[in-house]
Fold each of these.
Amino acid sequence: MQSPFRRGSYAGAIALPSPGLPNSRSARRLPPLTPCRENVNGDVVHGASIFAPAGAPADAIQTLSLFVLAITGIIFVIVGGLMVYCLVRYRRRSDDDGREPPQVYGSNPVELAWTVVPIIIVFVLTTTAIRSTYEIQAAPPPPDSLQVRVVGHQWWWEFQYPALGVITANELHIPVSDPAHPTPTYLTLESADVAHSFWVPRLAGKTDVIPNRRNIMWLAPAQSGTYVGQCAEFCGTQHAKMLLRVVVHPADDFARWVQAQRQPAARNPGAEAGRQVFEATACVSCHAVRGTGASGTFGPDLTHLMSRETIGAGAAQNDLANLRDWVEDPNRLKPGVLMPAMQLTQPQLDQVVSYLASLR
Amino acid sequence: MGVLDRTVPAAEPVAEAPSLVTRLHGWVVTVDHKRLGIMYIVSGILFLLVAGSMATTIRLQLVVPNNHLVPPQVFNRLMTMHGTTMIFLVAIPILFGFGNYLIPLMLGARDLAFPRLNAFGFWLFLFGALLLYFSYLAGDGLSGAGSAPDVGWFAYAPLTERPFSRGSSTDYWILGIALAGIGTTATAVNLLATAASMRCRGMTLGRMPLFVWLMLTSSAQLLIALPPLTAAQVMLLLDRFLGAHFFDTQAGGSAVLWQHFFWLFGHPEVYVLVLPAFGIASEIIPVFSRKPIFGYPVMVAASVGIGLISISVWAHHMFAVGMSPAANSFFIASSFMVAVPTGIKIFNWLATMWGGKIRFTTPMLFCIAFLFQFLCAGLTGVMLAVAPFNWQLTDSYFVVAHFHYVIVGAIVFNIFAGIYYWFPKMTGRMMSERLGRWHFWLMVIGFNLTFGPQHIAGMLGMPRRIYTYEAGRGWEIWNQLSTLGALFQAAAILVFAWNAIVSLRRGAVAGNDPWDAWTLEWSTTSPPPEYNFATLPEVRSRRPLWDLKHPDDPDGPYE
């Protein structure tokens, strides 16, 4: 099947507000509705409410959602109110005379009325929904947009930046997109094994990540920060711990991040022993560390492991204690994970952890 | 079946009560639609208890973040078996059990068109169900991986393919469901044939009770919807055993193809379940409002309309798989279209109550709660039909909340209404109204407390089918409320089970027509004799018993 992504029908990409459903609403954005907490680096990790959008297309979806909620809310109040009224008004009274009430069999004009009114409501909602679908789904990428290839794995995310020569995992870094001069990021979604779904509620709706298929979605966050999300399609034992973070940087910060990520792995003489253990065990058949002999692709690229906030796709904070625990037996933090315990001795474990800790 | 088959040698002295073995043997070999109907309903209720305990365990696991009550593998089996059981082994058998029991009685017939096929269908269903549960013992297979199925009730490929699902658990899922499906198909054919050919004199199609109309629509839909599932299951078996590549993405197969097949079954299936539930409400609401159903022809048309339109809405379960905007637009439009006849039905039930004298008996209470909860379910369904909104809501707890409002809030509530309403007919004894009210209030509070907060958890970004979650995402309180509600529901179900058992032995004697109702089943004894009617009735309107009770003011001229 061809890509769902078509050129030509999207008015003004992300920049131009469309007449019906404005895309850029930075001026009227609501404050976040969900609790926030501090993460280890002092950044704020926000909640993941769909009603706290941080940019396109989540804000357009929110506008549409509020419209739909308003209409359905009005219907609920009217119909629910009629039901309550009917139950109270027509309950059988204690002084009932035992006679049957008037037998009414139906009324064509009434039936017609409550057929036509719903048809009108449905027509409005349908056209609105279709229009919004095209606006979001058929937006062609601007020529200079950042392209990221997202590969879903059981149970972690791989992010490849082909034009930048960067490969990382579980934490997607993208530049902020000024609504006036949008620089959206286009994601090509693929899966290495089973179906997953990419969902970061404050940035966009979800798009499934399906093997033997290439889906496309875009993000144009207007605020920098860290946004949490996670896999939304059941993908096996550890579906619950397939979290992802999107870190949105101001443009120059993003350039610095890219520069750092392009470097080969740091060589720290103090960690040589650990590197040797690492390269002598099966670690290297799954993990890559650029600039060394490790070139596996089954697991996450570890070149800049310590630049990430979590390990095990959000299973634990990335600190030395957890890292040691993880390497000793990954099943402890993430039961069912595909990474095996390598049966290292305690000294070997210390060496490997100090090597991993040197991968900044 | 001649008269001779049934002759009881009246001259012989009455023997002592038959032994337990004789009575059990009687149930096993029976081809009586009433006994088979009761067996469907009772086995459905037993599976409800099993799958309900699974749901309670799921809720206890999720009550706090990072909980370790059950490991992830066990959780995944629980949620898979809970969903599969509730759909295939609880909702379908109970509703088709009602159809089995009631359709011949409502149509003035002595049995279904094919009594032996009926028994065959029931036993296939039961053995399919047992086969599915046998996986707990035998699902490990030769590779030692597995136990019960753990791939989710819609078993998305390629998670079900050999590399990702070793052992035999998925095979048990395929075979158990396929077998039960053949049984259900037999019943659907049987119900259609019965309504086509076994109606008593005067029972034109336009006079059939709405319950019968809705069971027929549901049966016809089932015949259309089930083959895609069975075909897909066979393809999956070929993939797993003979190296075919229908859904094997590593060899070029299509994961999306499975989703299309599954939802081509799965969405009509929702209506297969909800239409009989509508049928139950359409019988109970008029009787306890003391008025005929408002707009009978429109209700029939709306039901058939829902049946037809709902065959074309399946891919609204798949808005996030990356279909083209044009395809998404088609399914947006078709999903909205189905809202129109559904709305008409709600308005007609409301109009039936309007101007009546509403008696708040237990069956009616359940139907009233159904109306409110189905209104919620319909409106959240409208939200889900808006594709961009759906991209946020699908596969989140919002969807879990939405479909439980349909399946529990509408279908299970109407099943309870139906049980309280027809229990006197089936057993000859009334169920306790006092315990019934306890059951109702515990259930209505528990249900809304369980699933109401899940809408919010979903909008706060909580995906479905996660066995645990980290603290600080803002989901804790909603999950705690939800678990509290689940405990209320568990209590409600226990009260119900107690009520049924006690009433069976000590309930007040019901008589033929305890509710002062109007359809033919109330004209015979409770429980009815094996042959249903001593003489086959003849009807002149949609409410034959109204005509009998009000000879001066019969219905006929007004229809």
Amino acid sequence: MTTFATATRTAAEDRLLPSAAPLQLIDPDGHPGDNPGGLALPEPRMLLELYRRMVLGRRFDLQATTLTKQGRLAVYPSSHGQDACQVGAALALRDDDWLFPTYRDTVAIVTRGVDPVEALSLLRGDWHCGYDPYRYRIAPQCTPLGTSTLHAVGLAHAARLKHQDQAALVLLGDGATSEGDTHEALNFAAVWRAPAVFLVQNNGYAISVPLAKQTAAPTLAAKGIGYGIPSLLIDGNDAAAVYSAVRTGIERGSAGQGPTLIEAITYRIEAHTNADDAARYRQAGEVQSWLARDPIARLEAYLKAAALLDDDAVRRLAAEAERFAEGVRQRMNIDADLDPAELFAHVYTRPTEALEHQRAALLSELEDSAR
Amino acid sequence: MTGVLSPAGEIRSTTPAAAPVTMAGALNAALADSLSADERVLVFGEDVGTLGGVFRVTDGLAARFGERRVFDTPVAESGIIGTAIGMAMNGLVPVVEMQFDAFAYPAFEQVTSHLAKLHNRTRGLITLPIVVRIPFGGGIGGVEHHCDSSEAYYTHTPGLRVVTPGSPADAYRLLRQSIDCPDPVVFLEPKRRYWSKETAVLTTDGPAIDRAVIRRPGTDVTLISYGGTVQTGLEAAEAAAVEGWNVEVIDLRSLSPFDDPTVRESVCRTGRAVVVHEAPGFTGYGAEVAARLTEQCFHFLEAPILRVTGFDVPYPPPHLEHLHLPDTERILDAIARLQWDDSA
């Protein structure tokens, strides 16, 4: 009785499989891309905003790296080179949608409106999360790889159960696709038809391990079909494509069509963090070739050719970015006022008797040593 | 009535008259009553829907409350806990089931790195009122991976509450209290007591979620037990009475936080204490109990605090588990070693 018509299977595969080559709306030289797939070019206003946010984000990222070298941050994983993913993803979200970022996604967090100093609280070492997740609809930055994919799916499924039009976008890297939780999250999302979007920023390396040692799949996007999830393979240095792809995923989720898997091909220009030495695992020439595919230069060229941007506007934006960085620098050079008693305040919704005792002991110890 | 369990809703009488109930039935009633009382409550896990759970604790709930609120998930424990976290972040109250103690280990990272820590991570802004139900412990002739006592893994993690009931009536009370609790709760169900019966009124009135109770008052020695060993402890106390020892039996209920005042008061009064659990003794939960009671009661103690525990071996196969589990005889032996005769 079981009959699988070849034609039907092919149609299903077509629907679920990514394109052979990455979709692209704007090519590295700033010309219209020749492989847009079904992606729609964002409106000029959005293109300008993507550009502006990338310039501000890049400057912020550089400032954070500098502050780390000066000892003001405990650690900073740069997203230089992944600017289009950071900004495109954040701007594609609607107000009620949730963002689930990792430690490398501080620029996305700032782009969504979080105060930069609050956003850097984790990496400065003041507290594990410095912003109000509910105010911005941004989960705390997730450090263990892949684990937040499940949180995103749960949140998206809850929205569906409550009949709320709300999607969840989870950011992950190529390394995290090897984690079991990512597999479970893709599977749960598909079975539940949860309005979840998985954006894999494939920057080629999990710290030092190249993609070839991470997976034998033809592409990471190709994994979607195994879960019954439609997937998109896109040029991750094309902000217009990232924005449009994430938007597509959110709209699919919102229409009850379930999750979307997006693989964005990009590159991390800096080392994994300030504590890493990228020269041990990749050639300088490789970095140079990716600098030539810079996401900001590409969009700038496109906007100028379309007469949407001129040198004056570029200069004004550069000045704005400098002022922004200056503000971050000044505020990050002021030590946060940390309350030792807070160590005990949030372990449970109300401190246990044992924690009250430990807090009192620590405070009295501090009082004694201050004498 | 056939089987060991009644369908949901038939177990808890609408009148407050006491009725016989099994622990599994009491848990089922607690889930049903929580689902009725609060529409944010969801029950999900492996086989909890159509089947009603492998121990039938969720029997009838999917039919009564619908698939939106009681549902089967893919077989993926980390996925169950991880998605529960996201649901709780979005205002729901998930009560999830791990099918067996050792099958909960794939979820360990979600439990210890996220469930336990998100409230603290966000300075209290995110609360996760999630209950993780885990049938635990041995004594049912289960093959490997079905009989672990995993409590110490969880009690060692700040941010989790860990509770376990010692009787059917308390199973009802404690589960409802856990579901109402804004903190994440690991709810350990002593699976060999699922079919134990008690004639009781199911109510949430009584000791709070974080309080131990004295199940049997005594004067000579305090027997500290929890979960499956509460019944063992009570039986041992009866046997000890024949030998002339008046044993006080404490049911801890809450393993984390630990109810220091109740246990301290008892041990300082009796001057002797024995801790009983099925888990291996080495760095087991009893080590913490013995250490903190020694710190708090040293000048009242007549003898070192002793532990009666499982051996430091992987849980034995069914035909050998009786050698491993604490029983009346071993408890009596321990009581006998509590230096009763100073001149000896």
